[in-house]
């Protein structure tokens, strides 16, 4: 496909082809800026088979890696490059891939991977500016740039180019920036990591004892249930089971969710979703349970305490506690009444997406 359009008063010829699945949805492209003040060049339009006259042969060209490209993609690029054989007159743009929500992504390679110098400090700002111009002409909504720590110096070049890039998030050793390319509507790119997901575990054994811990620091109550944050990609059920095992050494299975709260302005200014879960501890045939072992460097003590003692504490009926309103409500209004939120897995309507957990309220069964 060859597309003719206009960029800054010049003719832009954009040749693209869909890549193979091995290219992970990548985009193979070559773009050429035909300036109005140079000699005539004759270009062939694939769609019509006719010859069309345009001025100049100075290209604004980008050829991304074609190592895994399809034969059609390779031939398209070879044809495009053959139109402008003079490498001394080529002005490049940066390789990118098409990504979700009508965006494009440029991944800056590490120093060892940048063999052609496109990501050198002296070339990057100009190439990035050219790339933004091309993507705006192609009506892309936004552009992402992933910068590894080894190329952090390029951030100054991105700022100097004044293209509207802003920090979005950092993960591991990679920083990700975004520029919204559309001028007709405000940015639709959401904030990164607006919420933390936390879990708390109500683990009660057959002896009517509840599993509690005392942390090494910041203990607002004499005892508390095991709590922690869910890892990226971890389900609520799995997070609750993992936190109990890590903090106390107790193996338990998540039975249901009792309640959750939604709080704003928490750690790092993020919002917080905290799920209180009901877990059943593993017991032997005699009803014996494991002895808790506190997690080193984090938990000072872990033990089973009588449920009645715990409830007096959260209700503020002991001298050493002023009460815990959240847990009082959970125990009195939810746990005692047999209310719970269960989970089932359902298939996704989106092709290729794995099944998703669906949470739903379940009332206690009523016996005749």
Q: Which structural class best describes the helix and strand composition? A: alpha+beta
> Could you tell me the strand content as a percent range?
35-45%
Note the overall shape: elongated
Strand order of the largest sheet: 8-9-10-12-11
Poorly predicted ranges = 1-85
Helix proportion range: 10-25%
- Give me the CATH superfamily of the domain at 195-346: Nucleoside Triphosphate Pyrophosphohydrolase
Please tell me the CATH architecture of the domain at 195-346 by its name. Alpha-Beta Complex
Care to count the β-strands?
20
State the CATH topology of the domain at 195-346: Nucleoside Triphosphate Pyrophosphohydrolase
- Distance linking N and C termini: 72 Å
Mean pLDDT: 78
Our count of helices gives 6
Order of helices and strands: EEEEEEHEEEHEHEEEEEHEEEHHEE
Task: Give the C-alpha Rg.
Answer: 30 Å
Largest sheet: 5 strands, mixed
- The CATH class of the domain at 195-346 is identified as Alpha Beta
């Amino acid at each position: 496909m060859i597309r003719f359009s206009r960029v800054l008063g010049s003719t832009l010829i954009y040749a693209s082809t869909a890549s193979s699945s091995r290219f992970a949805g990548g985009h193979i492209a070559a773009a050429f800026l035909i300036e109005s003040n140079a000699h005539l060049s004759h270009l062939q339009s694939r769609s019509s088979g006719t010859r069309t006259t345009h001025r100049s042969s100075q290209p604004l060209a980008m050829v991304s890696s074609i190592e895994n490209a399809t034969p059609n993609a390779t031939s398209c690029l070879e044809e495009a490059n053959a139109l402008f054989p003079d490498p001394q007159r080529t002005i490049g743009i940066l390789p990118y891939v098409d990504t979700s929500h009508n965006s494009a992504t440029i991944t800056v390679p590490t120093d060892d991977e940048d063999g052609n110098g496109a990501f050198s400090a002296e070339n990057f700002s100009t190439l990035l500016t050219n790339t933004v111009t091309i993507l705006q002409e192609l009506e892309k909504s936004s552009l992402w740039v992933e910068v590894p720590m080894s190329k952090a110096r390029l951030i100054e070049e991105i700022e100097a180019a004044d293209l509207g890039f802003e920090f979005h998030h950092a993960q591991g050793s990679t920083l990700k920036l975004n520029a919204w390319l559309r001028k007709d509507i405000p940015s639709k790119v959401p904030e990164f990591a607006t919420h933390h997901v936390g879990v708390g575990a109500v683990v009660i054994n057959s002896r009517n004892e509840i599993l509690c811990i005392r942390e090494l620091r910041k203990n607002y109550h004499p005892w508390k249930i095991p709590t922690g944050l869910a890892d990226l990609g971890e389900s609520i059920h799995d997070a609750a089971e993992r936190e109990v095992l890590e903090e106390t050494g107790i193996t338990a299975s998540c039975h249901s969710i009792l309640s959750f709260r939604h709080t704003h302005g928490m750690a790092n200014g993020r919002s917080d979703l905290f799920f209180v879960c009901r877990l059943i501890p593993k017991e032997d045939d005699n009803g014996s349970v494991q002895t808790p072992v506190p997690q080193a460097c984090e938990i000072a003590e872990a033990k089973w305490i009588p449920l009645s003692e715990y409830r007096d504490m959260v209700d503020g009926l002991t001298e050493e506690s002023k009460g815990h309103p959240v847990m009082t409500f959970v125990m009195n209004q939810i746990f005692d009444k047999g209310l719970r939120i269960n989970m089932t897995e359902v298939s996704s309507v989106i092709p290729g997406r794995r099944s998703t957990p669906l949470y739903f309220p379940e009332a206690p069964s009523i016996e005749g």
